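In practice, a research group might receive sequence data for several interacting partners and want a quick structural hypothesis before committing to experiments. The following worked case mirrors that situation: the sequences arrive first, and a predicted assembly follows.
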Amino acid sequence: MRTVDPIKHEEKRREILDAAGRCFVRKGFQGATIASICAEAKISPGHLYHYFASKEAIIQEMVKARLNATARFFGKAVDGADVLATILAGVEASMTDAKNIGQEMRIDMLAEAGRNPDMAKIIEENSSALRAQISDFLRKGQARGQIDPELDPMVTAGVLLSMSDGLKTLSLRNPTLDVAKNIQVLKILFARFLAPPKS
Amino acid sequence: MRTVDPIKHEEKRREILDAAGRCFVRKGFQGATIASICAEAKISPGHLYHYFASKEAIIQEMVKARLNATARFFGKAVDGADVLATILAGVEASMTDAKNIGQEMRIDMLAEAGRNPDMAKIIEENSSALRAQISDFLRKGQARGQIDPELDPMVTAGVLLSMSDGLKTLSLRNPTLDVAKNIQVLKILFARFLAPPKS
Amino acid sequence: MRTVDPIKHEEKRREILDAAGRCFVRKGFQGATIASICAEAKISPGHLYHYFASKEAIIQEMVKARLNATARFFGKAVDGADVLATILAGVEASMTDAKNIGQEMRIDMLAEAGRNPDMAKIIEENSSALRAQISDFLRKGQARGQIDPELDPMVTAGVLLSMSDGLKTLSLRNPTLDVAKNIQVLKILFARFLAPPKS
Amino acid sequence: MRTVDPIKHEEKRREILDAAGRCFVRKGFQGATIASICAEAKISPGHLYHYFASKEAIIQEMVKARLNATARFFGKAVDGADVLATILAGVEASMTDAKNIGQEMRIDMLAEAGRNPDMAKIIEENSSALRAQISDFLRKGQARGQIDPELDPMVTAGVLLSMSDGLKTLSLRNPTLDVAKNIQVLKILFARFLAPPKS
DNA sequence: CATGAATGAGCTTTCATTCAT
DNA sequence: CATGAATGAAAGCTCATTCAT
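A structural hypothesis for the assembly, expressed as tokens:
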């Protein structure tokens, strides 16, 4: 009796997705090969197709997993008492620990979404969920007088999300950039944008 | 006998670069094939190599040409009398005519720069030039009291450039987005960021 | 589970090398194509690269294998009691069974060595080993009074090796050549060259 | 009236053949490209086909020209008073000025003849002519008592020709070879082979 | 005579995927 | 479950040759 242990199966899938993630970060979605993913995951190519139907499926699942991780992480981050301070801390964290929560692939994912409808849909759904989270958080801030009540929470959430994409391109465009100075200016930007106008 | 005609040669090169550009927008740098570029340019694969040494060379020249076009366009845009108003108009233009000055490839170029040193160098040099332009413009605005004099012009220029990358991801993340509302919020963002604080 | 079977792998490599050898004999190193080698070996082009990294690698391994076979064959041949008689028998064998021990490619290999440093190195090392074998054999003959003691064994070995290249060109230059007569003259040549002068 | 100056035409052909020769020496028959020959001859590819029907035709004419040059050179060399001394001097010359009379391609030509019937025919005809020349010369030597009268002149001529091919492989097989020592041994070889037996 | 633009078949190599074991 | 042998359809690129001017 061949009992397929569903837990082990799921574990293996996760291992492969992790390995694939490392390869995609190094080489991009198209540049990474099934062979390299197999080498990284220490399995044979034939075996990989036991777990995933195609390279495309791996990419999609991997991206979903990373986006979900981001959203979960985000959900936790987003319950500080001081809404604006929390956001500013998030900007700073994004600039200093650039390598953490699966953010290395953000630009690749967005580029891919520009021409691959499946990827576009994934990004869209995740963005929509994130916007809702951020929007709620902003509303809380508005209720507490920490965020300008004139700003439409949902639209503002979308703008914040896309501006955070911009954070990822700063160091691509300027490898010798002075992180501290940029954080300072970025904090001014977000603070002035979001804070309620004085008087 | 003295044929050669370097003008025709240059014209053909430009035609091929244009065709390549269209293919890259559709499929990405890696996804577009030499065959597809040749079909688009209506030449044979062999002939393409009369004009370019490799696919890589085509990508690089095409990207440089587009970035230069952007920089030129930018140079013209950036001499309005009212610096802040000019920037806000630029934000609005970027949101409404998203398809004009070779901007469709921005995210692809940045993604490619993340793992291709040659592309990284091209992006870096162009970004450096753009930052210098924007920085000069901001300084002018500061002299005229239109821009907050406390902001470091060069750092702020870099931040503006990267935030403008974010503009490109807005519609990727939210295809049903209300452009007018977003423009309104974005104008608030940039205006509050850059305007001199009220005394 | 522990399949792998390095023996089968090695067997397949040998099969491919043999097939490649037949193609190279027919068409030369540059004239033979990967496709023709695959057809001869009855495998797909993709599969060939499971076993060899490149066409160049196939050429080199194949040449090395043939040269080693020659050297082994040579080592056995070269232990007759009568040194001079053994050499003369070798000349005769070389003229009569021209097609056996992988000698069909000798001239191609030497031509290739003239412009390919990797091939030059392979030929050089093999030649050096063969010269050492022949030299030892000649010294034995000198000790036994069968070979002229005045001849420098190493230099003479090199000369014999290169003269044996000449044997391969005889029939190329003269397809209607009378083998028997040529053997007779060649035996005179080598005998007079090597035999101790009559007191 | 377009008068085709046949002398100029012939001159141009010769120039192209010379250029082709240099390319073939550097890269081999298959390795040299029409483009490289055109560059070397400073003409355009289209123009080259005014003078030659195909690459194959260039190769054949070039080889014929070189072989004829060799034969002419040979004809002159071969009328010394002392036949054996002339041959030994030829051996020495062949070892010291390896780059003179178009001999750099000998091995390539022979390799090509092994699989290309057209080339085989060319080599064959030239070899036949050379054998006749050498044979005549040997006969003269026999008449003068300088060459062993027992040797069949025609067969011996063929053997000498092929042994001279071997001279070309000496330095291919042993790049650090001591030319002086080899010349010495080679002279012994040819002298003992050809000289009339004492008493 | 002379150019170089243009062709297209064919080259080596890669890679997602399937299959026998 | 797991392997790696095997496939075959491209991919980027080369090059002898032809053609319009």
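Before designing any experiment, note the following. Residues 33-35, 45-46, 49, 54-55 of chain D lie near DNA strand F (CB under 10 Å from a C1'). Chain D touches chain C through 50 residues (CB under 8 Å).
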